[in-house]
Amino acid sequence: DGGITQSPKYLFRKEGQNVTLSCEQNLNHDAMYWYRQDPGQGLRLIYYSQIVNDFQKGDIAEGYSVSREKKESFPLTVTSAQKNPTAFYLCASSKIQGLPSNQPQHFGDGTRLSIL
Amino acid sequence: GNSVTQMEGPVTLSEEAFLTINCTYTATGYPSLFWYVQYPGEGLQLLLKATKADDKGSNKGFEATYRKETTSFHLEKGSVQVSDSAVYFCALSEGQGGSEKLVFGKGMKLTVNP
Q: Measured between CB atoms, does B34 come within 8 Å of chain A?
């Protein structure tokens, strides 16, 4: 079945360490997204990409980096510059399609990152 | 900028009760509107959507109507089940067509007791 796979499901980071969260999709979607979810704050967009080798900052990009070398993959690196990285991270993807319809985003099951 | 305001819970209902989750939005242009549901430990799943004014989205007994005059997209279900226990997010897409960013409300946790 097609879908989005995020790994690992749980991740622990030491202070000052960079960690990379994996996101892979086999839906043949063009666009991919990373969100951060904190209790009581909903989802906030970190980065998104509409095409290979191109990506844009979302609302809270500071302390994060991404790459999009393949259509299927959009890994997120949480750097040591991110001072409060403990959160639930969700990856999503969608088709790119013109008017009139808007394609919904499909989500992975998330990675929960904690600081040791 | 664009924003979504929704009821914040948590809310606890008994099985077969009526459910309404209010959602209002602020946006320039004509966004598409979505309801997503998140079950414990999982990602978000699309519940329903509406792409223009007066459209009604429906799925699994849930309904929501795109009301441009009141900038609202309230979610309703006539009779909830224990399996509906989850967090519900209202969202809008910025821009029209193509790949748009989603703006989410803060989510509302619903617990349904037998």
A: yes
